[in-house]
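Reopening this ticket.

The earlier resolution said the output was attached, but the attachment link was broken on my side. Pasting everything inline this time so it's all in one place.
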Amino acid sequence: MSQTHRTWQRLKAEVASLPESLTVVHRAGDLVFQEGAFAPGVSLVTEGLVLLGGQSSEAPRPVTLARPGDLLGLEAWGDDQPPRYRGFARALTGTTLLFAPTHAWTRALERPTFRSLVLAILADLVLSEQARTLHRDRPERAVAWALLRWGLADEKDKDRLHLPVPTATLGQVLGLTRTTLRQAVAQLADLGVVEAVNGHLVGSAPRLREILGEPVTASAR
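Inline output:
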């Protein structure tokens, strides 16, 4: 079990203990929140994948994904009054969120243990975005990184990661054209690292780490 996994599991227990916390379940395709709507609190993703994005030229534009352990609704902590979401969130899979209203999070952050856990989660997110930028010019590495960061582990084989994201969406999130993404996947497939199953990518975590190298992937999973 990675340090990141242990950290968010501890945060999960802390959030669940808050008197006003709620478990919210979404089906695949559900809109979790929409851009411009009131942001009443913060959510911790505990199961599934969520697509985050915004409007660009009146069309939705995918920006990134949130996996178990990531936080949604950080706008609730901003200075804007009333706080409003600056983008949309949509469940890509069946998703479970642990939600707490802003005032409950604010009180909890006064406790050093809770605050340190939240800061660790946010630090992991910053390091993740840095890693994604580092791999931008190497499409095959960008795809490998995406599988390690966002891939969901198989229940029977934890080293087998499944990324249930449509190809077009993944390309937009990684900033790759369809042709470039297809070539990157083919390159990884030739190496025996990745395969396409029902239109989604499946990969071996150990082999993906070999492709990237441990110094780059240390914060990824």
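Reporter confirms the inline version is readable. The chain has a mean pLDDT of 90. The longest strand covers residues 59-66.
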